[in-house]
Amino acid sequence: MxxxxxxxxxxxxxxxxxxxxxxxxxxxxxxxxVLSPFAFGMLFALTWANQKVYLLAPANLIAGLLETFSLxxxxxxxxxxxxxxxxxxxxxxCKKNMKKWEFxxxxxxxxxxxxxxxxxxxxxxxxxxxxxxxxxxxMYSSIVIFEALIIRGFSNKLTSLELVSLFTIxxxxxxxxxxxxxYDFSFLKLFVSFLVLVFAYCSTPILTLLVAIIGGLGALLSxxxxxxxxxxxxxxxxxxxxxxxxxIFSIVGVLCVEILAGFYFNLYSSFGIIEILPLILSSLIFxxxxxxxxxxxxxxxxxxxxxxxxxxxxxxxxxxxxxxxxNLAEVFNEMNIIYRNMLKKNMSKEEVAxxxxxxxxxxxxxxxPERNHCHRTFAEDTKKVFDxxxxxxxxxxxxxxxxxxxxLTSRCKQTSAILGSVNALTSQYKxxxxxxxxxxxxxxxxxxxxxxxxxxxGSLSKEVESNISFDTVRESKILDELxxxxxxxxxxxxxxxxxxxxxxxxxxxxxxxxxxxxxDCVGKVCGQKxxxxxxxxxxxxxxxxxxxxxxxxxxxxxxxAQKTKENSxxxxxxxxxxxxxxxxxxxxxxxxxxxxxxxxNVSELSISLIENFYKAGFDNDIILSTVNKLLNLHKExxxxxxxxxxxxxxxxxxxxxxxxxxxxHILNEDGVxxxxxxxxxxxxxxxxxxxxxxxxxxxxxxxxxxxxxxxxSFESDEELKNEIKALKIKNPQExxxxxxxxxxxxxxGYAVDDLTVLVIKVFES
Length: 765
Fold this sequence. Notes:
About 60% of the residues lie in helices and about 15% in strands.
């Protein structure tokens, strides 16, 4: 425990010394020897970044007095600290965080004493105001980089705004360090040479040259002397030339430039071992920094290499996935062919009659003493009688004594046995045919599923066939735009899924994930409306992944109105409204034949199967054929009228699939359009060929689906159409309620059947 306390105290002491040095440098930083706005701005920025005020306050006071020891300066410093500390601790006691604008106000007020003393000493009030404004701007600029490094850490690339903030701090530190020398030991050279070596190793050439130029400009800003700009730029150039080799080569290059500038070109007023010592010291510090640490720092400056590798991996994996999915699709297609080839071909009616004829003869006539007489003398007549009996048994299900000709009953003593055998054999064969038909239907059902899976996997294979085109320029712009609106986003990826769809994936703080401004920012950068379609927790704690994509041209809202048949506990009508992949909306009504629990179960089964098949990506034909076969295989007769609509929100095309369902209406300003169909319900016959009708819809169109309880309440489809046309209602829920009430009014408020109205309004996204 004692060791932990010592370490904690030591860490606080080191921090305190660093704060004193930092503030001392910034108190020495000035603009043209007149303005000094940096120290108080940094004090408030560090306080915003949750640094310990009990360290910052005394460090600022000591540094200020070291720079200028006077009563006026002491009063000014104490005024600054008072205006900072008192509101700060009041907010802590109230458990309320200070906002940025409040920090700005207090930063301005903190300079009151300083301004008073400056005016009393004859200093220009205008310059005092400029000093406060620049200091406040410096505070906000510093807050930007502190938020990035303290909140996000060294794990994500800095945005353009954050880089500007970082270089502003470099400029201010250079302006202060140029005025601090001990026996010609230049702290400015120590600082800039170290930055140049680190930037050369960790960032881009442009940023390296920029930090060197800014280091020289900081000195120019304070001393009006451009002496340092040229050597600093030359340091950067030599460090960049050798950056791909060992670190020692960059160090030697920088040292050679400094020696040539001092000894050969006489750039400095004096030059010796003390003047070159700062570069040697910074080089040694750079050498001992572990490569792992430098790589972590490199992330905040330049992710292009790592992310290029990442993107290559993504595209390579997509290529491999495309091949594997293609092979898998072929496997399922082959299995589909195998199952279809396993179907048993039923014999013709003539072949069946011949087999049963032979079996009856073998079973009944084998031991009859009149066998030879019947099957030789009257062979044709006997065969004809047996064939006719078998045909009658197939058609009517049973034969009787009346079906046997009189000439056969007069000479045959086995008529009862013949009738029993014919009835028994035909009944057995019918059961066999039914069983074989069910087996074949099951095989076709499996084959259809295998074919559907093959098509789905094939479409997935095509989807991942092309490489993803990432847009790094827009990624950087999105980060900048979100930062400008105070939304912390640690990473952004932008790519084109297809020619119609652009996708942006963002990693933002949990508290920012629900902000509507995100869609606006991303849409502004991408040049089109973007909509959020997915969000989930990030692997990094306290962050959420948001996936946005190009918003479709249209969107939908809907209204539903239902009424259960009188004296019935549950409704046999079931509706569905779900969003599918590819910006499509599925809406459907399933009406189980009859009412009550059985009808409800049938409609729910049908709608549930259809929903899941559509979600999986199966084709219309396979979906409806499969659901129909499943219903047809049921032991009981279960039928369902089905009304399906699938609207593509990108182009406004709707696929209508109707099976024994009432008419669907499209209501718009031009009138009412009717969509109808005459196909059988689901489950009636084993094979169906659904008809898909395509219609184009526009903004503010209403799609009105109804169950037969609604349509049967009106005398004709024309009357129903006129009733819909007469409804001047814009809200889809109110429109659905109104149509349901009209239908009830036709039967004096009595629900003669289950009633359902589903209204979908299409509007511009």
